[in-house]
């Protein structure tokens, strides 16, 4: 798994600084942190944001901003973007060589899903995260292909959500922006209208629906009226031409009505551009709710195939995420995507000799502990 944070001893750091990292002294500017193991060399401290070093001691030359005694800087590439806090924490916000970068809008959420992979935290992190993202976005390369925004629930940022969307459109006009939201806030028409006014055709909202029956959906997301709010939100958003994706997590609670849900989506939400069927992540709340959620993917092949093929036959764009090929019937392989972000993607030892390894999306690193009983390497 890729390291995304580290920590050292800070000097002269106030608040949060956001900058690119570089090992190249020639490439420094006021938005760059120099990464260096040996600080004996001459460092032009006026031309850089700060110094990040593994050195055990640091003697200040001027009043430069420094974090020293960092265990390792190996995980950082020239051009990665980090935030450095006054507590010495160094968080990687953007990885230059990855197509799976995501901005965490907030850890707050108005739902509390049984299988939440990032359980909500009720603290007001919105102003600080927004401040960090405001500094980050102009530093992201303009040729960035795709950028995610997730939470918590990003729309809980209120007005700041719209400033973030506006800034992304202005600064990264060629980047596909993919926002994960439960969609409930858009039951209030003015929210959908406001997003529509930003009019970013590269913006896609990924919104989950777990059942065609309101009580099942509300139970899964642990929030009363969530189903009606989400469905109304989807309709409001479509009225303003917002591009939409429906996401369905596959587990013991969603599988029994999966084929009915597929029909519901086609009949009631024909405007959605993409429907993603997603394998369960064994992290966050899923671990404590595993008895309520676990069903071996091998055992829901029929429901999944029927649902996927039904929607595809109606002309809808369908994908299967987070599911190894060996637990899918071959006839639906064409819908399976290598969807797991590089930093959390892994394979079992037996996958090493599988002839389909290159086409298989494998597992979340944390799912190596809880996976189908039917993982079988292909030999031909
Ligand atoms: S054995 Fe491993 S690589 Fe092969 S299809 Fe199954 S999960 Fe994928």
Your description of this structure?
The chain is of the alpha/beta class. The chain folds into two domains: 5-90, Phosphohistidine domain (Glucose Oxidase, domain 1), CATH 3.50.30; 101-369, Aldolase class I (TIM Barrel). 23% of the residues lie in helices and 20% in strands. It has helices at residues 126-136, 159-171, 189-198, 214-221, 226-239, 258-268, 285-288, 290-293, 301-313; strands at 5-7, 9-11, 16-22, 32-36, 50-53, 66-68, 81-85, 89-94, 101-104, 146-150, 176-180, 203-208, 243-249, 274-278, 318-321, 345-346, 363-364. It has an eight-stranded mixed beta sheet with strand order 1-8-7-3-4-5-6-2. A seven-stranded parallel beta sheet has the order 9-10-11-12-13-14-15, with helices on one face. A two-stranded antiparallel sheet has the order 16-17. The two termini are 29 Å apart. Bound molecules: iron/sulfur cluster (SF4).
Q: What's the arrangement of secondary structure elements?
A:
Layout: E1 5-7, E2 9-11, E3 16-22, E4 32-36, E5 50-53, E6 66-68, E7 81-85, E8 89-94, E9 101-104, H1 126-136, E10 146-150, H2 159-171, E11 176-180, H3 189-198, E12 203-208, H4 214-221, H5 226-239, E13 243-249, H6 258-268, E14 274-278, H7 285-288, H8 290-293, H9 301-313, E15 318-321, E16 345-346, E17 363-364
Parallel strand pairs: 3-4, 4-5, 5-6, 9-10, 10-11, 11-12, 12-13, 13-14, 14-15
Antiparallel strand pairs: 1-8, 2-6, 3-7, 7-8, 16-17
The structure holds iron/sulfur cluster.
State Rg. Answer: 23 Å
What's the total helix number?
Answer: 9
Give the overall form: globular
**Portion in beta strands:** 15-25%
For the residues shown, what is the average pLDDT? 95
What's the total count of β strands?
A: 17
């Amino acid at each position: 798994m890729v390291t995304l944070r580290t920590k050292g001893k800070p000097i002269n750091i106030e608040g949060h600084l956001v900058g690119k990292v570089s090992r190249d002294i020639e490439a420094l500017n006021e938005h760059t942190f120099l990464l260096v193991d040996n600080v004996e060399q001459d460092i032009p401290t006026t031309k850089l944001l700060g110094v990040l070093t593994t050195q055990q001691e640091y003697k200040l030359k001027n009043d430069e901003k420094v974090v020293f005694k960092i265990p390792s800087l190996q995980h950082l590439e020239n051009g990665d973007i980090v935030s450095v806090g006054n507590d010495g924490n160094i968080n990687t916000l953007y990885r230059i060589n990855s197509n799976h970068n995501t901005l965490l809008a907030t850890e707050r959420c108005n739902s509390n899903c049984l299988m939440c992979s990032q359980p909500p935290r009720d603290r007001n992190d919105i102003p600080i995260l927004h401040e960090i993202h405001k500094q980050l976005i102009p530093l992201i390369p303009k040729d960035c292909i795709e950028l995610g925004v997730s939470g918590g629930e990003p729309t809980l940022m209120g007005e700041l959500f719209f400033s973030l969307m506006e800034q992304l459109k202005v600064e990264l006009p060629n980047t596909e922006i993919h926002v994960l939201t439960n969609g409930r806030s858009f039951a209030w028409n003015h929210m959908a209208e406001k997003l529509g006014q930003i009019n970013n055709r590269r913006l896609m909202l990924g919104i989950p629906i777990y059942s065609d029956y309101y009580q099942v959906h509300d139970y899964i997301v642990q929030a009363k009226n969530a189903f009606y709010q989400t469905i109304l939100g989807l309709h409001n958003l479509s009225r303003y031409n917002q591009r939409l994706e429906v996401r369905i997590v596959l587990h013991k609670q969603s599988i029994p009505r999966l084929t009915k849900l597929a029909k519901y989506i086609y009949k009631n939400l024909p405007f959605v551009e993409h429907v993603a069927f997603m394998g369960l992540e064994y992290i966050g709340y899923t671990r404590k709710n595993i008895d309520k959620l676990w069903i071996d993917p091998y055992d829901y092949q029929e429901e999944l195939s029927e649902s996927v093929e039904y929607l595809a036959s109606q002309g809808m764009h369908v994908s299967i995420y987070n599911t190894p090929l060996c637990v899918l019937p071959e006839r639906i392989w064409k819908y399976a995507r290598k969807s797991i972000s590089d930093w959390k993607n892994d394979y079992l030892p037996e996958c090493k000799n599988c002839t389909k390894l290159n086409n298989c999306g494998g597992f979340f690193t944390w799912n190596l502990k809880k996976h189908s009983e039917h993982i079988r390497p292909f030999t031909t």
